[in-house]
Amino acid sequence: MARLVMKFGGTSVATVERIKNAARHVKREFDAGNQVAVVVSAMSGKTNELVAWCKEASSVYDQAEYDTVVASGEQVTSGLMAIVLQEMGLPARSWQGWQIPLYGSDAHGSARIEGVDGAGILAGFDRNREIAVCSGFQGINPRSHRIVTLGRGGSDTSAVALAAGLKADRCDIYTDVDGVYTTDPRIVPKARRMDKVSFEEMLEMASLGSKVLQVRSVEIAMVQRVPTYVRSSFDDPENPNPGTLICDEDDIVEQQIVTGIAFSRDEAQITLRRVADKPGVAAAIFGPLADANINVDMIIQVVSDDQATTDITFTVPTADYERAKGLLESKHETIAYQTLQGATDVVKISAIGVGMRSHAGVAARAFRALAEKGINIRAITTSEIKFSVLIDAAYTELAVRTLHSLYGLDAA
Ligand code: ADP
Ligand code: ASP
Ligand code: MG
């Protein structure tokens, strides 16, 4: 007997018919004698609709009320899943975030999980192996007692945190692909499914744009050592594939130098031209951005040719682009730049692999390959197990496919 958490994403619960199919996977695990907690997302498209309604209601909506609205999508699917399971003759009930309770910080819209109290769900397991159908994405703040949500894609994080809280043997993330691929299979048909991927690489892939898992879910899986699988809800429930296991680097026998390519359209570029080249300038630019909670990612400072001024280029999340521009324009006199230029039609392409720690020249090969395709690189960053380049968005697919082939990742 094992204890499992099974999470079903938006496309897997998009209709009552799909919920019935997902329920067959749950039944298989229940019939095998396991204790099962299920985590569900809202039906696909529902959260977007709820977000749009908030924006329509007010351009400056209260974040706590936003959470009240957007958390409702998961309430519907948890209730429907419980009804479907009961209809199949299984003991099941729904649990909302506040009922579990799953505690979240007061950062409405992107709360961090502070803890999960699994006592009620465990009591149900002991009583009659009752299946706990939990609403993903939502929790309650223990101080304000308000509903909080965990940021887009947050049901993955609910599932892994619940698995940790219940001391589950495994967390299965059921989605519309049958595992983690070397890159997004929607962009590169030759992408290959991996049997295993290390926590570190998955963490980089998720934070660099592979939205198959929310970044925080991977963090929790890594820190709490939760064996986590990504697998397909569209497999035959009687004969499913195991999917991709996220695990320790040491458990992977055959390591590639580069394991995956990620891309993110969620970046915007800002360039300040002819900034005074003197101590304190970087602080004058990046201090206010940090104070405004704007994350700066890539930074390039050009060597000054006149010894007096320099150009500084950096990237910010697209969602913060207008705010960052406005802020820098308001500091025009203090920072003393000549012009501010911006671009949102850019994309960040990244290559990830723990093998980069021990191999030199991995990024250089990419720069050459991109140049041969006529793709201009606007900015570069590197760290121990990844490098990223910023390029024009029009070249996204070409660049991803070029790097995917370059590092031998294409399926035969
Ligand atoms: P869910 O609704 O189940 O949470 P998501 O849409 O959030 O599903 O995540 C699954 C999607 O992630 C896939 O359909 C795929 O297009 C995308 N994706 C991006 N990068 C990868 C990758 N490296 N491997 C697998 N899927 C990826
Ligand atoms: N329904 C939420 C979203 O669309 C959470 C999730 O699906 O993981 O972001
Ligand atoms: Mg998702």
In short:
By secondary structure, the protein is α/β, with parallel strands linked by helices. It contains 13 helices and 20 strands.
C-alpha end-to-end distance: 39 Å
Mean pLDDT: 96
The major sheet is characterized as: 8 strands, mixed
Alpha carbon gyration radius: 23 Å
Summarize the structure in words.
With 412 residues, the protein is α/β, with parallel strands linked by helices. The protein is built from 13 helices and 20 strands. Strand 7 (138-140) and strand 8 (147-149) form a beta hairpin. It binds adenosine-5'-diphosphate, aspartic acid (ASP) and magnesium ion. Aspartic acid (ASP) binds at residues 9-10, 41-42, 47, 73, 136-137, 152-156. Keywords: Amino-acid biosynthesis, ATP-binding, Kinase, Lysine biosynthesis, Nucleotide-binding, Transferase. It catalyses: L-aspartate + ATP = 4-phospho-L-aspartate + ADP.
Topology:
Layout: E1 3-8, H1 16-31, E2 35-40, H2 46-57, H3 63-70, H4 72-87, E3 92-95, E4 102-104, E5 113-116, H5 119-128, E6 131-135, E7 138-140, E8 147-149, H6 155-165, E9 170-175, E10 196-198, H7 199-207, H8 215-223, E11 228-232, E12 244-247, E13 260-264, E14 267-276, H9 281-291, E15 299-301, E16 309-317, H10 321-330, H11 332-335, E17 339-343, E18 346-352, H12 362-372, E19 379-383, E20 386-392, H13 396-406
Parallel strand pairs: 1-2, 1-9, 2-6, 3-6, 9-11, 10-12
Antiparallel strand pairs: 4-5, 7-8, 11-12, 13-18, 14-16, 14-17, 15-16, 18-20, 19-20
Helix pairs in contact: 1-4, 6-8, 7-8, 12-13
Keywords: Amino-acid biosynthesis, ATP-binding, Kinase, Lysine biosynthesis, Nucleotide-binding, Transferase
Protein name: Aspartokinase
EC number: 2.7.2.4
